[in-house]
Every structure is written in structure tokens, then in C-alpha cells.
Design goal:
The chain is of the alpha/beta class and 187 residues long. It contains 7 helices and 5 strands; from the N terminus they run E-H-E-H-H-E-H-E-H-E-H-H.
């Protein structure tokens, strides 16, 4: 069974995107699609990194733990809010500090906002950064407009059937990329 790491990228107080993270984790587990863990950047509270991990002389233990989780995951699912048309600095910092960990890593991106567009404006900028790092970005999207109303604090969607249908399509694309990579590695 594949292992998916969900990267919850917001570190703001009252963050709404973490609700989507909780929903996706629960759905993956309920449907027995993969093993799953949440990597919550709010728990790490990383400083701004001045150098990539591979060039740091004395990396902090939390950074090594984070690197290992990304490296060992078969796929990564990033959940990010949209802040003023961009994604949080916490996410950019967490992506840029690693490099070999992202290479050929299947990565799917879920965006959210409290507006009507669901974070669609940030998807291409994140994909571009990951593409430059040689990640395998999944073209399927899972935008979440009005996320503050669409999910409660525990990640329960207001529209369960509709949200699950969209999410399952998105997750199946990530799983396809994971399976494709695994089959290529076996050759």
C-alpha cells in the first residue's frame, strides 16, 4: 500500500486550510487508499533557511525528521491557502530547503481560500517551483472555494457527497502517478 504525506502549509492562527488537510487524511483512511500522515508546518515552526539542507553543516533535528518524511513518502499532497494571490512563505521555505527529496516525487496540490476561486491563482506558481526541482506534479487539482464555510473545524465538509466525489478523482490521479513511478522503478 502506498504511503502519502499530506503537507499542511499554513502556520497562521485560525487557519482554514488545515480543515481540508483533516478531511483528505480521513477520506484516504476511510477508503483505504493508502497509509497517510500529516506533516504540519505549524508544528515545526521552521526558521527562514539560509541554505538547503544538503549544504547545512549542523542541520536542526526537526529538519532532518521533515526531510526523512518527505523522502520516505511515495507521494506528497500539499494543502495550501491562497494569500494575496500567492502561497505562504512557510511553504516556499519548506519546499526550497530540500532538493533531492523532491526529485521524481509525485506531488498533488490542493488549494483553498475564503473566496470564490478556491486558491486557483497559486497552483501554477507552486507547480513551477516543484517542476524546477524535478518533482512529478499531478495535473489534477482540488480547489476549495469558500473553505471557511465548506468545512467545519474538524474537516467535515458541508457537502459530503460532492466534496468526496471531487476529492476521490483528485486522489486517484495522485495514486496513478505513484503507481506509475513504482512500476518504472521495478524495471
Amino acid at each position: 500500500m502506498p504511503h502519502i504525506a499530506i503537507l499542511s502549509s499554513s502556520i497562521r492562527k485560525g487557519r482554514i486550510s488545515h480543515r481540508v488537510t483533516l478531511f483528505l487524511k480521513r477520506l484516504i483512511e476511510e477508503k483505504n487508499l493508502a497509509t497517510v500522515e500529516i506533516i504540519d508546518l505549524n508544528e515545526y515552526q521552521f526558521p527562514i533557511f539560509h541554505e538547503r539542507l544538503m549544504f547545512q553543516e549542523n542541520p536542526m533535528p526537526e529538519l532532518l525528521k521533515y526531510s526523512k518524511k518527505i523522502k520516505e513518502a511515495d507521494g506528497v499532497l500539499i494543502v495550501t491557502p491562497e494569500y494575496n494571490g500567492g502561497y505562504p512563505a512557510s511553504l516556499k521555505n519548506a519546499i526550497d530547503v530540500l532538493y533531492p527529496e523532491w526529485q521524481r516525487k509525485p506531488v498533488a496540490i490542493s488549494t483553498c481560500s475564503d473566496g470564490d476561486f478556491g486558491g486557483n491563482q497559486v497552483i501554477t506558481s507552486i507547480q513551477f517551483v516543484l517542476w524546477k526541482m524535478h518533482a512529478m506534479t499531478v495535473p489534477a487539482m482540488f480547489p476549495n472555494p469558500n473553505a471557511d464555510k465548506a468545512y467545519d473545524d474538524q474537516g467535515n465538509p458541508a457537502d459530503v457527497p460532492g466534496t468526496e466525489k471531487r476529492a476521490l478523482h483528485f486522489l486517484k490521479e495522485l495514486l496513478w502517478y505513484i503507481e506509475a513511478k513504482q512500476s518504472m522503478q521495478e524495471k
